Amino acid sequence: MSPPAATLETVTPVNTGMSFKKDLAVKPLPTAQSKALAELQNQWDSFTFAPIRESQVSRAMTRRYFADLDNYAESDIVIIGAGSCGLSTAYMLGKQRPDLRIAIIEASVSPGGGAWLGGQLFSAMVMRKPAEAFLNELGVPYEDEGDFVVVKHAALFTSTLLSRVLSFPNIKLFNATAVEDLITRPAPTEADPNAVRIAGVVTNWTLVSMHHDDQSCMDPNTINAPLVISTTGHDGPFGAFSVKRLVSMQQLEKLGGMRGLDMRSAEDAIVKRTREVVKGLIVGGMELSEVDGANRMGPTFGAMALSGVKAAEEALKVIDERKAENEY
Ligand SMILES: Cc1cc2nc3c(=O)[nH]c(=O)nc-3n(C[C@H](O)[C@H](O)[C@H](O)COP(=O)(O)OP(=O)(O)OC[C@H]3O[C@@H](n4cnc5c(N)ncnc54)[C@H](O)[C@@H]3O)c2cc1C
C-alpha cells in the first residue's frame, strides 16, 4: 500500500498554540496501484518505485513510534529481554490475553538473545522432551531423537517465535532500549517493613545507557506496569539485570550465582522455579539461575521455552490482583 500523499494544510499542535506549515510546496502525490509480484517480472526496463518525499518516510516511522510510546507508557505487562524465554512468555500471553497491553524492552538492536545458534556457535538447537510441545504449537519442524528433538537451525525457532510475537496487535517490541532501573512502590509486610512492589521500568536508548559515564543530562524514560517479567539472561554486562538491582535495593539478600553445568538438573530447576520473586516481578530463563544458584545448562533450550510458558501462567494468576494494587 502506498503512503498517504503530503498535504499543505496548516497544523496546530495540541497544547502549544503554535501553527506551522506541515510541508513545503509539495504537490499531492497520486496513489500507486498495488501489483502482484508476477506483474513485475520481465518488466524491469519500465520499472519504477512509487514516488515519495523523504519527510513521508520520517513521519511514517516517527508517528507510529511516538504513538506506541504514548500507548505503552501505561502497560499491563512489561517483559524485559527478548531472548528465548522472554519471547516464549510474550507468545503465550499474546495468544491467551489479547486484552493486555504488553511491552517488550530489548537492549540489543537484534532481538532473540542467545538463541540464534546452538552451543559453540553450531547451527542445530536441542530441546529435551516435553519442550517439543512448544515447537508443535509454533509449527517449528524438528527431528525426533527419542528423549530430545533437534531443530535444524536455532534461527528457525527464534525467527518463527519472533514473527508470531510481533504479529500480535497488543504486543510492542521496543528494541535498542535498555531497562536502567525498576519503578517501585512501598508494599510493607510484617516480615519486611521496607518491602516494595515493582510497578514498572525505567528505560533509555541502549546507546545512551552505554554513555552515562562520558555524557551528562541523559535522563531516562519510564513505563508504568503492575507486572514486570524479567528474562535478561545469565550474568554479564547486560544480563541478570533485575535480580542484581533487587539485591542493590535490598529486596533480595544476595544472589545464589549460576553453578557448574548439569544439563539434567538445570532445566528442571529453571522451569519449576519460574515465579514472582518480588511482588510485581516475575523472573524466568537464565536470569533465575542467578537468583537460586541453579546449575548452568549449556546449549539446550527446552527450559527457556517452558520457563516462558510458566512465566505467562504465573503472570495470569496475579495480573488482576497486581492491577488492583497499582492505583498510583
Ligand atoms: C554460544 C552459546 C553459549 C551458551 N552458553 C550458555 C551458558 O554458559 N550457560 C547456559 O545456561 N546457557 C548457555 N547457552 C544457552 C542460551 O544462551 C541460554 O540458555 C539462553 O539464551 C538464555 O535465554 P534467556 O531468554 O534466559 O536469555 P538470553 O537469551 O540471554 O536473552 C536475554 C535478553 O535480554 C536482553 N537484556 C539484558 N539486559 C537487559 C536490560 N537491562 N534491558 C533490556 N534488555 C536486556 C539481552 O540483550 C538479551 O537479548 C548458550 C547458548 C549459546 C548459543
From TrEMBL:
Keyword presence, Iron: yes
Cross-referenced InterPro entries: FAD/NAD-bd_sf, Sti35, Thi4_fam
Localisation per UniProt entry: Cytoplasm; Nucleus
The EC number(s) this enzyme carries: 2.4.2.60
Signal peptide per UniProt: none
Entry's cofactor comment: Binds 1 Fe cation per subunit.
Annotated residues for binding of substrate: 85, 106-107, 114, 179, 219, 234, 286, 296-298
Modifications after synthesis and translation: During the catalytic reaction, a sulfide is transferred from Cys-217 to a reaction intermediate, generating a dehydroalanine residue.
Stretches of the chain forming a coiled coil according to its record: none
UniProt GO cellular component terms: cytosol; nucleus
One GO BP annotation of this record: thiamine biosynthetic process
Residue list for modification 2,3-didehydroalanine (Cys): 217
GO-annotated molecular function: cysteine-dependent adenosine diphosphate thiazole synthase activity; iron ion binding
Keywords annotated in UniProt: Cytoplasm, Iron, Metal-binding, NAD, Nucleus, Thiamine biosynthesis, Transferase
Catalyzed chemical reaction(s): [ADP-thiazole synthase]-L-cysteine + glycine + NAD(+) = [ADP-thiazole synthase]-dehydroalanine + ADP-5-ethyl-4-methylthiazole-2-carboxylate + nicotinamide + 3 H2O + 2 H(+)
Superkingdom, taxonomy of origin: Eukaryota
Family to which this protein belongs: Belongs to the THI4 family.
Subunit description: Homooctamer.
Role this protein plays: Involved in biosynthesis of the thiamine precursor thiazole. Catalyzes the conversion of NAD and glycine to adenosine diphosphate 5-(2-hydroxyethyl)-4-methylthiazole-2-carboxylic acid (ADT), an adenylated thiazole intermediate. The reaction includes an iron-dependent sulfide transfer from a conserved cysteine residue of the protein to a thiazole intermediate. The enzyme can only undergo a single turnover, which suggests it is a suicide enzyme. May have additional roles in adaptation to various stress conditions and in DNA damage tolerance.
Descriptive protein name: Thiamine thiazole synthase
